[in-house]
């Protein structure tokens, strides 16, 4: 072909389902020597399901779901969608909501029928089950807990192995979720550098720390909570299908086809193009 190599590889990446935003990005991707993955929606499908609703004494599961679904209705988080879908399925009646506030990496709060409802992450319990638990509180009082489970992407372990082989530094896992769930996903995918219970700014700080130590970080994520870390990384890659608008805007490249195995292919494509350029 008569196309310049970087442009040809951008076109090629596009055919494989990855949108690369510029020639500079295409070139940078191949320089990555450390790949870091977000967990929820990136290594996992990002389609969690409600496994259990546990009300405190004096409350019913339906009440907990009614509060939680109302507070979560305006959130685009995968956990929010799962809670709302579950409430619908159980025909829990929708309630009026005001003053919705999203706290990225933490949860949501809203006024439901005059009361302040919060749905947020439970304190990390390293002995706890490998699932995500959120607490539902009303006017600062815990009223119940909802347990959600997500499934690993079928290509996750193989992708981690392949990017690990293409890079000189160990693969990292960065998540806002609890340590037990993070350890479960890390074990299943063969990642041994695991960082759990991170706020969005903690993810960014970890990336900066690695970059200051000389690493060229390629961070893969999907959420609003990953945007600061994507911006801090040499290269930010967003999972496109269910990715949040902020993640898609901040990312340097977008995995349009919902398949992680495009990632090692992308790194290889960039390296091949650079051999021609340099
Ligand atoms: P990850 O880094 O794995 O993608 P997030 O940073 O989005 O996860 O979320 C971290 C934790 O914060 C979740 O595991 C959950 O406990 C809590 N959380 C975040 N958003 C919500 C929400 N909309 N509703 C309830 N809990 C939430
Ligand atoms: Mg995520």
Automatic annotation (TrEMBL):
Subcellular location: Cell membrane
Domain of life: Bacteria
Family in the record: Belongs to the cation transport ATPase (P-type) (TC 3.A.3) family. Type IB subfamily.
Name of the protein in question: Heavy metal translocating P-type ATPase
Originating species: Nocardiopsis exhalans
């Amino acid at each position: 072909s008569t196309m310049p190599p970087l442009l040809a590889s951008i076109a090629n990446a596009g055919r494989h389902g990855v949108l690369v935003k510029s020639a500079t990005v295409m070139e940078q991707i191949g320089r990555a020597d450390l790949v870091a993955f977000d967990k929820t929606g990136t290594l996992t499908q990002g389609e969690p399901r409600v496994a259990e609703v546990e009300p405190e004494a004096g409350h019913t599961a339906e009440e907990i779901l009614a509060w939680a679904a109302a507070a979560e209705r305006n959130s685009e988080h995968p956990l929010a969608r799962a809670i709302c879908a579950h409430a619908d399925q159980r025909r829990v009646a929708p309630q009026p909501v005001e003053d919705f506030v999203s706290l990225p990496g933490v949860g949501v709060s809203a006024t439901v029928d005059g009361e302040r409802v919060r749905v947020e992450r439970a304190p990390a319990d390293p002995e706890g089950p490998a699932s995500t638990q959120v607490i539902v509180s009303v006017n600062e009082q815990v009223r119940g807990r909802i347990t959600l489970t997500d499934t690993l992407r079928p290509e996750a372990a193989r992708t981690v192995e392949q990017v690990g082989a293409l890079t000189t530094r160990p693969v990292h896992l960065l998540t806002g979720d609890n340590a037990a769930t993070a350890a479960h996903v890390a074990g299943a995918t063969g990642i041994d550098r695991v960082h759990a219970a991170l706020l969005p700014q903690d993810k960014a700080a970890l990336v900066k720390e690695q970059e200051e130590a000389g690493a060229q970080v390629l961070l893969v994520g999907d959420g609003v909570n990953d945007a600061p870390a994507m911006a801090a990384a040499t290269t930010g890659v967003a999972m496109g299908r269910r990715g949040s608008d902020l993640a898609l805007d901040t990312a340097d490249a977008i995995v349009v086809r919902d398949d992680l195995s495009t990632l090692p292919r992308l790194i290889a494509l960039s390296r091949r193009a650079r051999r021609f350029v340099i």
